[in-house]
Amino acid sequence: MTAYLLRRLLHAIPILIGVNLITFALFFVVNTPDDMARLHLGEKHVTADAIAGWKRAHGYDRPLLYAPEAGGLARFTETLFFQKSARLMVLDFGRADDGRDIGRDIRQRMGPSLAIAIPSLVLGLLTNITLALGIVFVRGSRLEHTAVFLAVLGMSISTLFYIIGAQYLLGKLLNLTPVSGWLDGWAGIKFLVLPLLVGVVSGIGSGVRWYRLLFLEEAGKDYVRTARAKGLAEGRVLGQHMLRNAAIPILTGVVAVIPLLFMGGLLTESFFAIPGLGSYTIDAIRSQDFSIVRAMVFLGAAMYLLGLLLTDVSYTLADPRVRLQ
Amino acid sequence: MISLPVQPVLLHTDALLWLIVAVTTVFLWRARRTPRLVMAFQQLARRPIAVASLVLLLPYVSVALLDSVHFQRSLTDAGGTYHAPVESLLDRLLLPLSERTEKTYSAPLALFSYSKETRAGDDRRLQRTFPRLRHGGAHLSHAQARGADIRQRALPAAGLGLGTGALLAGLVCWRLARREGIGLADAARRLLAGKTPTAWRSALLTATAFFVLAAVIASLATVYHVLGTDKVGQDVLYLSLKSIRTGVVIGSGSLLIALPLAIVLGTAAGYFGGRVDDLVQYLYSTLNAIPGVLLIAAAVLTLDVYMDQNVAAFANVQQRADLRLTALCLILGATGWIGLCRLLRGEALKLRELEYVQSARALGLKQVRIISRHLWPNLTHLVLLTAVIDFSGLVLAEAVLSYVGVGVDPGTISWGSMINTARLELAREPAVWWSLAAAFVFMLGLVLPANLLADALRDALDPRQRSEH
After folding, report:
1. What pTM value is reported for the model?
2. Distance separating alpha carbons of residues B109 and B141, to the nearest angstrom
3. What is the ipTM of this complex?
4. By the 8 A CB rule, do A311 and A22 touch?
5. Which residue of A has its CA nearest to B439?
6. Which residue of B286, B464, B468 is in closest CB contact with A15?
7. What DSSP string runs through B104-149?
């Protein structure tokens, strides 16, 4: 197992390097640091001096990949690639264009993101699995057709409408919850209700459809038939035998997203003014702060790879027959 | 050289869209020779929901195509000099709509503006009143006449819609009767009972409902703002209709980029294995590791900077907006091929070991020929299925991306930009809800049928996942 984990971690390195190269190419080769400087300085203040000054101040005055005049190892380290991209590999995120420490921002904003993401994952999972089991229970009936249609309807509505609708209906018209905002600590719970509700409800459509297909495939298997033939009630067949056997595919979906959770929901966070990583990223995109976007791209990729690894590990825990080697 | 009164203009996205029409036509033509696909299509034709969805998608496709024939009009009668603005056929069809702008918001079918204005009353004293609209219901001499006027216009239109539906039903009956060799009355009875091999009843009902709705809206739209106007007084119905093209272009254009990538790389990886497989797997693992929205955002940001630096390269605003839309398709396509590629790689791995492929290889057939003759035909259903399933997801993605600010050009009319501006209008007192509602209904009208069709197609093509009916 240890050897397997080590090998998987080694596999992740070329992928992370690839991710770095892609973002590097996107941000530095297609557009030079000169273009970036011009963009940030604005039309009026563009002079050769101003550009050089901006580049120096933000550390973009180095060559791209190779610095011949530096000599020694510095020929490779005194480059934009090493300074701006390679250091991400050791989670050194550097500074944003406005001079703030990106690493500290990320640590600070993780909390709010997790406070929304974890409960909505758990609640969403419970809701979707329960509903999907219910639909499988009544399969073949009119009720099933209606439920499946409703699920398709639910997934055909843009998340934007769920958010706007909930804010307008529950927040503004009925005045049940605050429309948006954030408070640290227990006092902030009232701000969590609406984003959680939206997170769960907007996911029902696609979630229920996915679990329903999963359960249907499981329900056709021999052991389910055997259990039914033994005279077990349908509810117990579905709830106990089948659910346990469907654990692995469910795990695949769930474990893989856990590390991504703390990236938060881009939309949810920005609509509900939650100071998490999602809104951080959107703000960075809007203000064209490439350093932050680059850091978030790298972080997202690293978390995704971690998620894949965790999925494999979770298999061994869920099913003793699975051996990793 | 002969100078024409109009000069055709081919935007990038026009070319993309018409290419898709061509590819789809060729595909459907060839699919008639693939028994598996023919069976799937026959099964689709039997399902009322699938048929109704298809009927609903047709107007969307037509509007998108009408909006993709662009031209510039001549300034003089003799031709030669052309107007700068590029227009489409749809623009010409909707002509009064696009030009009849009000000052600001007005509710659906309203006669008065939504915000008060200070003006001199009859007694020359200044008062704050809701002014009459410039175009909406301007033909009415007094406001009380609105109800009767709407009824007078809507009822004949509804009748016309019903009539068209009935005419269509008659044609279908006649064809049915001739084909089956039965009487017209028998054919009508069968049609009404829904006992025809193709789900004609559901198709005709959906079509008639659409005709009625379209006729009523069209008759009212000539003198009213049926869906109200937005902040700068533009007709919301016009905006909603123009958004259709953007949604369809994003949905299908991205697929046109993604599918060939996935097909070539996926089958190559699965069939050749070894180095090729390693390379393709590395490529998609790397791309897949980057969160999709961020990769798209990064690419669009880069494009933004590029376009800012090269302003001179674009002749006009429309070309710039069009390039942005094309680029968005490219980017969504470049990130959207991974899922299908994986699927095809797995299938190709399986197919490679089948006996007939093995024997083709033993006979010394060229690799390219084996792939195109023996592999691809057996993978078509997966490609088709993925295309239909992904389409609606891409349409939804456009709205989200435009909200984040990395979607279409701000000058491009799209549901995403409509929602984005409409969001703040809900906070007004009283709320302005119609732009949002229009975007919601028009978007749902495209995405829901597409999803329902995808569902039906999955049942027809993938017997493994068929539910127990």
Report:
1. 0.88
2. 16
3. 0.85
4. no
5. A161
6. B286
7. S-B-TT-SB-SS-EEEE-TTS-EEEE-PBPSSTTTT-SSGGGHHHH
